[in-house]
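Dear colleague,

Following up on Tuesday's group meeting, I ran the structure prediction for the two-component complex that the binding team flagged. I've pasted the input sequences exactly as they went in, so you can double-check that nothing got truncated or mislabelled along the way. The structure tokens for the whole assembly follow below. Feel free to forward this to whoever is handling the docking comparison.

Inputs:
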Amino acid sequence: MTMTLSLPKPQKTRLPRFGYRFPLVGVISFLIIVAWILVAIFAPFIAPHPVGDIVDFDFFGPMTAEFPLGTDYLGRDMLSRILLGARYTVGISLAAVCLACLCGITLGMTAAVIGGWFDTVLSRTLDALTSIPSKILALVIVAAVGSSIPILIVTLAIIYTPGCYRIARALAVNINTMDYVTVARARGEGLGYLIRSEILPGIIGPVLADFGLRFVFIVLLLSSMSFLGLGVQPPFADWGALVKENIGGLSFAAPAVIFPSIAIASLTISVNLLIDNLPQKIRDRSES
Amino acid sequence: MSNLVEVRNLRVNAKTDSGRTVEIIRNVSFDIAEGEIVALIGESGSGKTTIALTLMGYTRSGCRIVEGSVKLAGQEISALPERKRASKRGTEVSYVPQSAAASFNPAHRIMDQVIEVTKIHHLMPIEQAREKAVELFRGLALPDPDTIGDRYPHQVSGGQLQRLSAAMALIGDPKLVIFDEPTTALDVTTQVEVLRAFKSVMKKGAIAGVYVSHDLAVVAQIADRIIVLKNGEIQEVGLTTDIVQRPQHPYTRELLDAFEPAPRVPIAGGRNEPEAPLLVVKDIVAGYGKIGNARMPSLRVINKVSFELPRGKNLGIIGESGCGKSTLARVIAGILPAAQGQILFEGKPLDPDLRKRSRNELREIQIVFQSADTALNPAKSIADILARPLIFYHGIGGKQLEARVDHLLDMVRLPRALRYRRPGELSGGQKQRINLARALAADAKLILCDEITSALDTVVGAAIIELLKELQRELSLSYLFISHDLSTVRAICDEVAVMYAGEKIEQLNPDAMGGEASHPYSRLLFASVPKLDTGWLDSLEQDPALLQAYSRR
């Protein structure tokens, strides 16, 4: 080893330029999502009334100063119930989508890199899973094992893993034929490095978009399961269950049925808009 | 004298996505007379295609003509409304793109696509258009001119498709045809035919042409005048013979020098005693598809190829596209395991499959791919790309790693500040240097160079060749140099193997190329390389029987 003492050259070493452009729609959606996450975390502190207590003698009460979003079919405070429902809707959906994407993307990239019979067997198995209608599958699993939050998370994750796998595999197969992957392979790199360092950065954009979309699907499926009574069990309720409980108030134009629906819509639409309007990195190519 | 095209003080600007304006074309003026072929030559990014496209009144998205005039047959084309411009395209000016394969629709028959121009402009009835197309096919020396139009684009060869796209351009009787690097993607043997066909058709119809290329030798055959461009500015304009024989501008001289790289001087030294060759390849058979009986793949790409590569020497492998030369490199690297045969490295047999080779064996043979665009991960910084082999093979980290990356950048003559960039922010030549530096990071003994200069401009490519020679002197490397370009092979290799259809035809000294090459195919191949001489194409005589025998069409 020679002792080379390289003095820092007087030329200015330019740091990489990071410029991001934030679309306004993306910022607004992001703020709405953050707000819901904060609500989910701090719900017990900000809810004005206990969630299970009947506080009003009137059912399907109107919006008043005491009950800003009215009361439900038993006279419980709707605002408190929506705030606490955020915990279930956001929490379960987020856990499920993370689990589904983690499994799906890892398996998808692995299948693309390994190929051969591993790919075939895995793809066919997950295709078979896709062929079962998701709601029926969810109903069967939950009816068989009983409804609890971990069961719900796992069920939703299982249902949405094949779709994730399909997308990740399709993207990874394209990247896998690139010369830089061949170079890494010729270098003798292992599977873990290939999928983590060479393939993942190339597919992360579309995969994130898919993540957001899948989150929306999961929120909707969870809501419809709760609507059917197989989701979160009383006295607690997620937003879907809140709609179901108060569906009878529709004819009274009760706020109790409108606001959970608005909550679902605001979350899903925000997530959708956010992934369509992610910050764009500006890198000027031709600048020398 | 009336000029068909008059371009005056043309300026084209482009906007980058950060909103900065870049000047692409600066103050360019030139004329094209009726029936004259003018070549625009320069390296990539010199604006030659942009200028050619402005002649059709077209600029690529983001670009804009800011100043100047482009007159075609006396009419100011840049001022016309889009509808009028569209009516001129195909009838007065037409375009032959670089990649004919990408510009034909694979779902339609060739004939329908060729005569589409006449349909759009209502020039003539379909029957007449078909007859005219057949006439053009005949003029372009296409085989079976009467029936070739009934085929689909994938049923003809690349050279034929390129001629067919010329027929498409010519069917509307344009006054000016723009050729945008039409032969760059073709093999030398095919290029000769295509150039001949273009030349005769253009001369017969007295059609003016703009020929965009980076290859001086090709341009010398077809153009009357040459315009040399660099960074969007005209460097030199002159008659072809003047430019080729008496270049005035230093940049033109640089281009000419790059065309004939200095031949390799064998390293003088006392290492003349016979020693074990570095790499021995014995009777390699490889291919794709199922390995069937007798361990033969269903599609055989390489058939019983053998050669030896002595330490510190370079072997060139040449042949036209599809002859299996790149596959050979993949087989040696173990990416595509050989079905039969043996590879010995430093006397020790290597496993055909790279997954069964040891890390050290992998380290000693490195492969460098043709297209640096796809060989470098666009999501990683240059420092990360170069650091990975250092970490992987040598396990170094921290300060030492930083120093080694800097050292590698110095070795390939790149500024150290580039380490923060992404591959997309480098030029083609810089990317290829990084590609090379990554192979050097492994401390390889043998580097397999798969067409590493083919995607580069001549000047840049020549610089890469010089770098390879320098590195060889410093690090005593060996190269297996795969190329279809004979002049680069000649510049760097001690021995040259000629391949055809998966077989090694012969191995010879590069000085013997063009001379006493024994095999007829080698003679054909060497003779087809364009020379920097305006009369080369006309004086070239090829044995038609030989051409027929060695064209797999």
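Residues 1-17 of chain A have pLDDT under 50 and may be disordered.

Cheers,
M.
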